[in-house]
C-alpha cells in the first residue's frame, strides 16, 4: 500500500509539505476525518505528487495519508498512527511490519508484541496458514524476545503467550500455563482463572482432571452452575468413552462414575437443603445428558433410581422455588425431556400443589399466590395444555388474569409479568386467526399497565411491536423515548421501529431516525477502534481480538446496511433538490455492499412468553425469513438507487463515457434480476410474520406487486436504449417511453388505495393501515419516476447534438386564426426536424401525469379520512365482566391517539406531494 | 444457579433484558470496553444456564493513599432474575476483588429515589456517606447518594463516617 512520491524532494520542500500536512494529522488525531480530507484535498492541489487514493473510502484515505506521512516524517507518533490505521482496515500484514519497524526504530518492547499480535490476527483470518506458519512464527518470536530481554512486559507477554497457545489449540499447555504462579498477573479475577483452567482441561479431553477439580470446587460453591456443568459433562464424556468397549470392567467403571455423580449431587443437596437451586437442577441436566448419548449405559437404562423421578423432582422444585420469578425459566430447559404421560402427571401434581398454596393464609404484601398462578399457567401453556382448552375456558382464565393485574397493591413486577402473559394469548389469536378484536384488547390492557406501572419495560416493548403492525407511529415514538433506547440498543432493537416511518409515509421522520442510527454506527466504529488502540497501548492483547470481532459485527450489521440504503433512497427522493447531488447520493459508495457477509445483530429474546411447544421452530423460522426479507428489500432499494444513479452518471463530466454506459447496463440488469427474484420469492399471498417477537413488517410483497418498481424498470430500460440511440447520432422517438395514456393507466392502478368494501358490510378494524402503506409506496414510486424523468431529460440535452431544448413557444403569442395556423406549421416543421425536442416535451408532459397522480392520491386521502367506518373493533372486552367496563373506559383515548397517528400519516404525505410533485 | 464470568464484548448484543430496566443506563461502546480493558476482574456477568444474561456488575479500583478504593459503577439485575440474591452475590464478588487489591473501602452512587437499591446496600453494610447534588442529568435529573463500606484495611471504618453536608457533582472527583 505504500506510495512513492516518485521524485526526490529537497529538504525545504519536505519541510513545507510537513507544515501543510500538520492540520491533516491534527484533524486525524481528533478523528475529524472530513476535515482531514478537506485539508488533504487542499494539499493535493498544491502538491499533486502526494497522490492520495481518491477512489477509496475515507478510512482507506487515512491509511494512505499516514503512509505518506511516514515517508516525510517517520516519527514514532506517525508510525503508531499508521499501525492503528492498518488495524482499522484489518490490514494485519502491513501492521505487523510497522510494529516491527517501531520496535527496531524506537526499541520499545511493547511494539514487538504489537507485531506478534498482528500475526495472531492474521491467523484468525486464515486458520490453516495460522496453524502451519503464523502461530508457530508468533510463538518463536515471543520466545526469542523473552530469551533476549527477559519478561519485561508482565501481563502483556503472558496474555500474548496464552493467545498463541489457544490459537494452536494446545489445551493442555493452556491449562498448565494458567496454573503457573505468574498467571495471577493475567487480567482475570482469581476465580475466573481457575474456571479458565478447567475449561482448557475440558477442551483438551482431560475429563478425569476436570471432574476432580470441578467436583471438589462444587462442594464449596454449590450454586455455581458452571461447576455442575463441568462435573456432569466430564462424567458423560468419560462414560461415553468407557461404554465404547464391551469389556465388563469398563462397563462397571462407567456405572460407577454415574453413581459417583449421583452421590455428589445428593451429598451437596443435603448440605444446602433447598436454599439454593443448582444442586436441584443438576439431576435434570445429568439425566438429559446421559439420555442424549448415542449409546445407552448397559444396565442403567433407567436413571431414575439414581437421579430421581423427573416429575417428582420437578414438583419438589416447584414447591420450593415457585416464589422466584426464575422458577419457570429453570424448569423450561427440561420440559422437552418429558413424555406425554409425564407432562400430564406433572400438571396434575401442580393442580394439587396450587390448591394447597391457595388455601394458605394471605399475608399483606406477599405475592406468593400470584407467582404460583403465573408459574402454573406458564407451565400449562408450555406443555400444550392450553391448546386442549375451550375458547370459553380461555376467556374465563383471561378474565381472572385481568383481575389479578388490576388487583389493589399489585407489585409492578408481578403486574408486568401477568400483563405480558395474559396478552400472549391475545397475540396468539391475532397471529393464528387474525383476530383484530383480541389484538385491540391486548393494546388496551398493555396501555393500562403502561399508564400504571413505571418500572415494567416489557409491556412498552410489546406495545411498540403491536403499534408497528398498524402504523401508529405517534405512540411508537413516545414509547421509544420512554424506554430510552439508545447506543447499541438502536442496533439490536432497531427492528422494532425500522421501516415503520417509511411504510407510514413519514419520510422525514424515517430519514431522521436513520440518520441517528448511522451516527450511532459511526460513533460505535470510532469508539471501538479507540478502545482497540488503547488495548494495544496497554498491552491488553486478549481484548484486541474480541473487540475486533465486535467491530466486524457492527460494521456488517444488517440493520446498518438497511438504514444506509434507505437513507440514500429517501433523501434522494424527498429531500435533496440538486439533481447532481441526487445522482451522487443514489450511487453511494464505490464499493458495493457485500450482502452475503451481513450479520444478524437483532435481539429477539427480549419479548418473553414463547412457551408454546412450537415456539422454538417458529422463532427460528421468523428470524431467518425476516433477515432474508430485510436484506432483499434493502438490496432492491440499493439496486434501484444504483441504476438511477447510473443514469445520472451518463451526463457527468468527469465520468469515462464508456464506463458510465457499462455501469448503466449492469445496474439496470441487476435491478431487474433482483426485482424478478423478489416477485418470485414474495408472492402476493405472503403476509408479514405476526409473531409478537417479529420485527416491524417490511411489506416487501406489497411493494414488488404494486406495479411501481416495474414502472421504474421500464423507464430504466428505455434509458439504456435512449443512450444507444443518441450515441449513434439518431434522435429518439417518444414511443420509447410509452404514451401518456399508458402511463396514466399504470398510475391509476398504482394509486388505487381505497379499501374494497363488501356491499352492506362495514370495513374491518384498522382498515386504514393498508391504504397508508400503499399510499406511501405509491408516493415513493411517483417521486422516483419524477427524478428518473429529470435524469432522462439531462441525458437527452447532453447527448443529443444540435438540439433546441424546447419547442418554440409561438402558439401563445399568435393572434388570429392565420397566425395560429402559421405558428402550428412552424412547430410541426421543428418537430419533424428534430424528434429529440418532441421527446423532451413528451418527457416533460409526463411530469404533468405524475402531478395528476399526486393530486388524485391526495383526493383519496380526503375521502379516506371522511369514511365513517371505525378504525377500532366495535366490540371490546365482551364476556370479561367488570374488566369489560375498564377496557371500554380507556378505549376512546386510545382510539383518538390512533386516529391522530393515521391522520398525521396522510398529512405528512400530502405535504410531500405538494413539495415534491 | 449462576455462572459468573468476565464480561465479553459480545454481551452488548444481548443485554437488553437487563438494560431496559428504568434505572439502568445504556452507554456508548467506549464506556463498556474501557472497563473491560482496564478493570476486567471488576466486570462480571451472571449467566443463566439457558444463556440469558441475568445480571452484571462493573466497577474499578481508583484513588490514592487511604482513598484507594473499589468503586461500583453499575450493578443491574434483569427483571426475571430478581429475588435470587444476585445483587448481593455480585457485590460480594466485587468486595472480595477489592480486598485482594488491598483497597480501604468500596463505594457506589445510587439515585436517591431508588429506595429498593438503597435498602439492599444498607443490608450489605453500606452507609450513606454523602449526598451528591445534581449527579444524574438527562431525562431524569436527580441527586445521588454516595454509599460506602469499609474493607478490612480500614478496621476503624473511617471511610464510613458520613459527611454532614452535601457536595455538588462538579466537586466530586
From TrEMBL, chain A:
InterPro entries recorded: NAA25_NatB_aux_su, TPR-like_helical_dom_sf
Chain segments annotated as coiled-coil in the UniProt record: 244-271
Assigned GO CC terms: NatB complex
Highest taxon listed in the record's lineage: Eukaryota
Record's keyword terms, sorted: Coiled coil, TPR repeat
Keyword Coiled coil: yes
PANTHER family documented for this protein: N-ALPHA-ACETYLTRANSFERASE 25, NATB AUXILIARY SUBUNIT, N-TERMINAL ACETYLTRANSFERASE-RELATED
Family: Belongs to the MDM20/NAA25 family.
Record's protein name: N-terminal acetyltransferase B complex subunit MDM20 homolog
Species of origin: Caenorhabditis brenneri (Nematode worm)
TrEMBL record, chain B:
Catalytic activity, EC: 2.3.1.254
CDD domains given in the database record: NAT_SF
Assembly: Component of the N-terminal acetyltransferase B (NatB) complex which is composed of NAA20 and NAA25.
Species per Swiss-Prot/TrEMBL record: Caenorhabditis brenneri (Nematode worm)
InterPro entries per UniProt: Acyl_CoA_acyltransferase, GNAT_dom, NatB_acetyltransferase_subunit
Catalytic activity: N-terminal L-methionyl-L-glutaminyl-[protein] + acetyl-CoA = N-terminal N(alpha)-acetyl-L-methionyl-L-glutaminyl-[protein] + CoA + H(+); N-terminal L-methionyl-L-glutamyl-[protein] + acetyl-CoA = N-terminal N(alpha)-acetyl-L-methionyl-L-glutamyl-[protein] + CoA + H(+); N-terminal L-methionyl-L-aspartyl-[protein] + acetyl-CoA = N-terminal N(alpha)-acetyl-L-methionyl-L-aspartyl-[protein] + CoA + H(+); N-terminal L-methionyl-L-asparaginyl-[protein] + acetyl-CoA = N-terminal N(alpha)-acetyl-L-methionyl-L-asparaginyl-[protein] + CoA + H(+)
Protein's name according to its UniProt entry: N-alpha-acetyltransferase 20
GO MF: protein N-terminal-methionine acetyltransferase activity
Keyword set includes Transferase: yes
Described function: Catalytic subunit of the NatB complex which catalyzes acetylation of the N-terminal methionine residues of peptides beginning with Met-Asp, Met-Glu, Met-Asn and Met-Gln. Proteins with cell cycle functions are overrepresented in the pool of NatB substrates. Required for maintaining the structure and function of actomyosin fibers and for proper cellular migration.
Keyword set includes Transferase: yes
Keywords in alphabetical order: Acyltransferase, Transferase
GO cellular component, as recorded: NatB complex
Domain N-acetyltransferase: 2-152
SUPFAM superfamilies: Acyl-CoA N-acyltransferases (Nat) (SSF55729)
Protein family membership: Belongs to the acetyltransferase family. ARD1 subfamily.
Amino acid at each position: 500500500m505504500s506510495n512513492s512520491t516518485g521524485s526526490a524532494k529537497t529538504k525545504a520542500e519536505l519541510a513545507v509539505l510537513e507544515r501543510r500536512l500538520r492540520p491533516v494529522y491534527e484533524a486525524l488525531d481528533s478523528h475529524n476525518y472530513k476535515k482531514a480530507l478537506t485539508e488533504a484535498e487542499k494539499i493535493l492541489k498544491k502538491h499533486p505528487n502526494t497522490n492520495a487514493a481518491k477512489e477509496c473510502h475515507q478510512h482507506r484515505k487515512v491509511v494512505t495519508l499516514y503512509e505518506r506521512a511516514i515517508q516525510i516524517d517517520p516519527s514514532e507518533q506517525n508510525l503508531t498512527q499508521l499501525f492503528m490505521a492498518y488495524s482499522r482496515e484489518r490490514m494485519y500484514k502491513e501492521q505487523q511490519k510497522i510494529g516491527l519497524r517501531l520496535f527496531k526504530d524506537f526499541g520499545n518492547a511493547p511494539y514487538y508484541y504489537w507485531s506478534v499480535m498482528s500475526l495472531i490476527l492474521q491467523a484468525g483470518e486464515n486458520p490453516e496458514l495460522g496453524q502451519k506458519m503464523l502461530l508457530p512464527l508468533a510463538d518463536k518470536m515471543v520466545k526469542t524476545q523473552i530469551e533476549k530481554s527477559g519478561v519485561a512486559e508482565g501481563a502483556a507477554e503472558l496474555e500474548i503467550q496464552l493467545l498463541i497457545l489457544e490459537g494452536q489449540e494446545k489445551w493442555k499447555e493452556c491449562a498448565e500455563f494458567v496454573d503457573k504462579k505468574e498467571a495471577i498477573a493475567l487480567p482475570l479475577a482469581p476465580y475466573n482463572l481457575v474456571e479458565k483452567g478447567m475449561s482448557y482441561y475440558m477442551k483438551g479431553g482431560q475429563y478425569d482432571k476436570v471432574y476432580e477439580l470441578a467436583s471438589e470446587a462444587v462442594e464449596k460453591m454449590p450454586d455455581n452452575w458452571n461447576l455442575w456443568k463441568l462435573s456432569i459433562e466430564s462424567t458423560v464424556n468419560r462414560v461415553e468413552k468407557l461404554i465404547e468397549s464391551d469389556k465388563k470392567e469398563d462397563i462397571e467403571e462407567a456405572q460407577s462414575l454415574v453413581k459417583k455423580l449421583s452421590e455428589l449431587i445428593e451429598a451437596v443437596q443435603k448440605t444446602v437443603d433447598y436454599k439454593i437451586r443448582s444442586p436441584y437442577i443438576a439431576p435434570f441436566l445429568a439425566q438429559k445428558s446421559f439420555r442424549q448419548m448415542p449409546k445407552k449405559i448397559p444396565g442403567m437404562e433407567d436413571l431414575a433410581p439414581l437421579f430421581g423421578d423427573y416429575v417428582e423432582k420437578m414438583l419438589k422444585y416447584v414447591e420450593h422455588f415457585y416464589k422466584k420469578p426464575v422458577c419457570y425459566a429453570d424448569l423450561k430447559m427440561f420440559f422437552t425431556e418429558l413424555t406425554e404421560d409425564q407432562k400430564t402427571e406433572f400438571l396434575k401434581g401442580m393442580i394439587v400443589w396450587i390448591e394447597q398454596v391457595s388455601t394458605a393464609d394471605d399475608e399483606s404484601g406477599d405475592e406468593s399466590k400470584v407467582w404460583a398462578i403465573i408459574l402454573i399457567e406458564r407451565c400449562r401453556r408450555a406443555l400444550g395444555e392450553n391448546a386442549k382448552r375451550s375458547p370459553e375456558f380461555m376467556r374465563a382464565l383471561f378474565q381472572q388474569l385481568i383481575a389479578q393485574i388490576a388487583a389493589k397493591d399489585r407489585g409492578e413486577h408481578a403486574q408486568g409479568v401477568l400483563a405480558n402473559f395474559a396478552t400472549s394469548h391475545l397475540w396468539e389469536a391475532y397471529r393464528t386467526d387474525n383476530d383484530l378484536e383480541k389484538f385491540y384488547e391486548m393494546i388496551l390492557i398493555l396501555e393500562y399497565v403502561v399508564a400504571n406501572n413505571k418500572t415494567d419495560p416489557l409491556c412498552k416493548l410489546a406495545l411498540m411491536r403491536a403499534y408497528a403492525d398498524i402504523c401508529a407511529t405517534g405512540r411508537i415514538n413516545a414509547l421509544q423515548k420512554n424506554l430510552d433506547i439508545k447506543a447499541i440498543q438502536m442496533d439490536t432493537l432497531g427492528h422494532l421501529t425500522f421501516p415503520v416511518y417509511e411504510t407510514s409515509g413519514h419520510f422525514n421522520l424515517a430519514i431522521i431516525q436513520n440518520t441517528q442510527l448511522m451516527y450511532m454506527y459511526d460513533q460505535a466504529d470510532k469508539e471501538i477502534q479507540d478502545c482497540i488502540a488503547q488495548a494495544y497501548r496497554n498491552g491488553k492483547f486478549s481484548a484486541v481480538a474480541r473487540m475486533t470481532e465486535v467491530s466486524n459485527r457492527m460494521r456488517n450489521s444488517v440493520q446498518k446496511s438497511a438504514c444506509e440504503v434507505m437513507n440514500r433512497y429517501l433523501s434522494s427522493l424527498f429531500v435533496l433538490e440538486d439533481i447532481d447531488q441526487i445522482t451522487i447520493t443514489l450511487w453511494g459508495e464505490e464499493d458495493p455492499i457485500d450482502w452475503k457477509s451481513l450479520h444478524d445483530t437483532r435481539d429477539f429474546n427480549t419479548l418473553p412468553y414463547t412457551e408454546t411447544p412450537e415456539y422454538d421452530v417458529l422463532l427460528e423460522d421468523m428470524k431467518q425469513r425476516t433477515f432474508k426479507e430485510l436484506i432483499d428489500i434493502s438490496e432492491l432499494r440499493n439496486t434501484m438507487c444504483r441504476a438511477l444513479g447510473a443514469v445520472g452518471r451518463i451526463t457527468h463530466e468527469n465520468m469515462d463515457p464508456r464506463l458510465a454506459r457499462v455501469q448503466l447496463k449492469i445496474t439496470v440488469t441487476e435491478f431487474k434480476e433482483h426485482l424478478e427474484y423478489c416477485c418470485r420469492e414474495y408472492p402476493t399471498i405472503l403476509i408479514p410474520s405476526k409473531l409478537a417477537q417479529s420485527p416491524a413488517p417490511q411489506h416487501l410483497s406489497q411493494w414488488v406487486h404494486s406495479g411501481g418498481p416495474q414502472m421504474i424498470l421500464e423507464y430504466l430500460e428505455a434509458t439504456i436504449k435512449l443512450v444507444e440511440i443518441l450515441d449513434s447520432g439518431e434522435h429518439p422517438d417518444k414511443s420509447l417511453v410509452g404514451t401518456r395514456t399508458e402511463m396514466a393507466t399504470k398510475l391509476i392502478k398504482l394509486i388505487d388505495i381505497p379499501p374494497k368494501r363488501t356491499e352492506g358490510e362495514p370495513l374491518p378494524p384498522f382498515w386504514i393501515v393498508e391504504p397508508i402503506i400503499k399510499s406511501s409506496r405509491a408516493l415513493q414510486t411517483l417521486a422516483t419516476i419524477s427524478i428518473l424523468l429529470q435524469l432522462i431529460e439531462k441525458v437527452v440535452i447532453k447527448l443529443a447534438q444540435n438540439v433546441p431544448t424546447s419547442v418554440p413557444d409561438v402558439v401563445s403569442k399568435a393572434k388570429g386564426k392565420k397566425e395560429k395556423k402559421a405558428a402550428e406549421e412552424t412547430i410541426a416543421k421543428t418537430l419533424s426536424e428534430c424528434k429529440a425536442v418532441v421527446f423532451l416535451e413528451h418527457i416533460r408532459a409526463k411530469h404533468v401525469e405524475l402531478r395528476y397522480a399526486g393530486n388524485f392520491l391526495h383526493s383519496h386521502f380526503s375521502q379516506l379520512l371522511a369514511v365513517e367506518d371505525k378504525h377500532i373493533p366495535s366490540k371490546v372486552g365482551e364476556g370479561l365482566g367488570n374488566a369489560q367496563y375498564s377496557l371500554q373506559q380507556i378505549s376512546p383515548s386510545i382510539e383518538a391517539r390512533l386516529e391522530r397517528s393515521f391522520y398525521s400519516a396522510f398529512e405528512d404525505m400530502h405535504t410531500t406531494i405538494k413539495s415534491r410533485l | 444457579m449462576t455462572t459468573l464470568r468476565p464480561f465479553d464484548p459480545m454481551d452488548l448484543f444481548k443485554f437488553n433484558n437487563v438494560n431496559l430496566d428504568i434505572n439502568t443506563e445504556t452507554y456508548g461502546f467506549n464506556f463498556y470496553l474501557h472497563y473491560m480493558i482496564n478493570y476486567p476482574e471488576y466486570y462480571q456477568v451472571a449467566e443463566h444456564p439457558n444463556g440469558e444474561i441475568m445480571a452484571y456488575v462493573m466497577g474499578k479500583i481508583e484513588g490514592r493513599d487511604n482513598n484507594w478504593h473499589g468503586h461500583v459503577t453499575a450493578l443491574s439485575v434483569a427483571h426475571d432474575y430478581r429475588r435470587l440474591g444476585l445483587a448481593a452475590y455480585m457485590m460480594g464478588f466485587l468486595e472480595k476483588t477489592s480486598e485482594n487489591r488491598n483497597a480501604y473501602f468500596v463505594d457506589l452512587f445510587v439515585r436517591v429515589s431508588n429506595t429498593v437499591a438503597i435498602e439492599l446496600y444498607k443490608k450489605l453494610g453500606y452507609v450513606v456517606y454523602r449526598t451528591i447534588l445534581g449527579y444524574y442529568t438527562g431525562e431524569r435529573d436527580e441527586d445521588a447518594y454516595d454509599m460506602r463500606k469499609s474493607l478490612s484495611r480500614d478496621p476503624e471504618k473511617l471511610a464510613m463516617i458520613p459527611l454532614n453536608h452535601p457536595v455538588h457533582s462538579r466537586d466530586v472527583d
